[in-house]
Amino acid sequence: MSVSFDLTGTTAVVTGARRGIGFAMAEGLAMAGADIIAASASQEADGGAIGARVRELGRTFEGHAVDFRDRDAVAAFGAAVRDRADILVNNAGTIRRSPAAEHPLEWWDEVLDVNLRNQFVLTQAVAAGMLERGYGRIVFTASLLSFQGGITVPGYTAAKSGIAGLVKALSNEWSARGVTVNAIAPGYIATDNTAALRADEDRSQAILDRIPAGRWGSAEDLQGATVFLASPSAAYVTGVTLPVDGGWMAR
After folding, report:
1. Average pLDDT for residues 217-234, to the nearest whole number?
2. What is the pLDDT of residues 165-200, one digit of tens each?
3. Are strands 179-186 and 35-40 parallel, antiparallel or unpaired?
4. pTM higher than 0.90, yes or no?
5. Pairing of strands 136-141, 179-186
6. How far, in Å, CA of 134 to CA of 58, rounded?
7. Would you call 156 a catalytic residue per the annotation?
8. CB–CB of 38/26 below 8 Å?
């Protein structure tokens, strides 16, 4: 088998692509040749900045506004794209911070809905088409908290730990039918979500002291892993949650 990371002629569905990690993932896939269908709660039809970037790269872009708290909306979106999706990147997510003893149950429900339950709903719908065609690449965004416990984010940790388990379960069922299922666990990435941590000099330094690479990651650091896992060359890579963390998990 020849080595190929060329995604020309494929269509990638990327959730949460308006900014940050999802933006970089969609950009990387488009750079490799994929056309992009993006969805998030506030995704513009023309894509805004990510749509402009994808078209600049010579690929087509399609945007959908989908509330990932709404199971019916997610299921309808999945049904609409299932016959076109060669690649699915489940990146949409949310986080709520509060000590576990005081964590509002509505926050728990919201985070589990967005980060786990409705990701399964979308994956189930899109994978139906992939399984019929005998080919597909599914990539979830996991977290370092798929391996660790974190502090004051019980719902997020539970959901991201669930993603790591879901990747294995789906891989066990679908890999022999040509559909691989993997996840990327980003390390400490400089995005809007980590702005408060980076602004806290003591906390930021403590984080840097544990990262062997000696720096915060950038969203672009995730592009290579995304393209690889979405490519034909990753046919024998499945059921894996891959840390892209500058060595954090090795320390």
Report:
1. 98
2. 999 999 999 999 999 999 999 999 998 878 888 888
3. unpaired
4. yes
5. parallel
6. 27
7. yes
8. yes
> Do 126 and 82 touch, CB atoms closer than 8 A?
yes
**DSSP state at residue 188:** S
CA angle 82, 3, 8 (to 5 degrees): 40
User: Would strands 179-186 and 87-90 be described as parallel, antiparallel, or unpaired?
Assistant: unpaired
Residue type for 207, please?
Answer: I
Judge whether 180 and 234 are in contact, CB under 8 Å: yes
- Please tell me the distance from the alpha carbon of residue 36 to that of residue 210, in angstroms, as a whole number: 36
Structure tokens at 39: 């969805």
Choice among 135, 156, 188, 236 that is catalytic:
156
How far from 224 is each of 28, 40, 158, 160, CA to CA, in Å? 7, 23, 27, 21
- How far apart are alpha carbons 230 and 220 in whole angstroms? 16
Number of separate helices (H) and strands (E) present in the chain: 9, 7
Q: Which two tokens stand for residue 2?
A: 């020849």
Please tell me the total number of residues recorded for the chain in this structure. Answer: 251
> Hey, what domains does the chain have and what are their CATH numbers?
11-250 (3.40.50.720)
